[in-house]
Amino acid sequence: MENNNKLLAEVNGKKIYRNDVIAFMQNIEGGARFQNEEGIKVLTDEMVNQEIILTDAYKNKLDTDDEFQNELKLVKDNMLKNYAMHKIFESVNPTEDDLRTYYDENKEVISPNKTYTASHILIDDLDKANEVYKEIENGLDFKEAAKKYSKDPSAASGGSLGTFPKGVMVKEFQDGLDSLKIGEISKPVKSQFGYHLIYLEDVKNEEAKAFDEVKDQVYQTYLMVKRQEKYLEKLNEISKDAEVKKYY
């Protein structure tokens, strides 16, 4: 096996090792075609050429050009934002006990033992929602009514919400679901979004999966939720010092 620490070239005192060339190869499009000794030599030559270009750029003070400085600031700002996010998130490092506790407290969502297949129509006004409900009672197809009246993005697909677990919808919507039998349509259900006509298409009850079966999912969900909490906590802490103007 080739020694990746082997010195392949020097340019003005800058050493280029085999592992530098391999890293370069992995970061260029189509780099895999250079995975042979001849390819390594070609890439080494290119790295030498780029070092010569870099030396000349410094010699001619291109790094002080306004255009370069503006680009450099953009790159630096983006890197710093990513690093700042990393610093916020680094404290989220759950133990096995943390994950088990989170699973026990959120089992219905992580491993739902009850799922619903449903559609809805969302309307701003109660009187209008009652009118639409009567139209459906009198024979208007629910999907057509959704396309015609619903203000929710799901209108385009006839109001379909697909299949989802218990607990992901707002409480009022969930209560409305639980009051229905399969095939029934609710009278208007009020939530923070407006008035819903809910059509319950199916309900399935399954045994919840054990923690060990969904441990990876629990870990990813825990990270997502806790990182979001840390992010919002940090924003809440520092936003008071920011001058923000919004024009939308």
Automatic annotation (TrEMBL):
Pfam families on file: Rotamase
Principal EC category: isomerase
GO molecular function, one term: peptidyl-prolyl cis-trans isomerase activity
EC number(s) reported in the record: 5.2.1.8
Keyword field: Isomerase, Rotamase, Signal
Highest taxon, organism lineage: Bacteria
Catalyzed chemical reaction(s): [protein]-peptidylproline (omega=180) = [protein]-peptidylproline (omega=0)
Residue intervals of the PpiC domain: 113-202
Transmembrane regions: none
PANTHER family linked to this entry: FOLDASE PROTEIN PRSA (PTHR47245:SF1), PEPTIDYLPROLYL ISOMERASE (PTHR47245)
Name of the molecule in the record: peptidylprolyl isomerase
Organism annotation: Anaerococcus murdochii
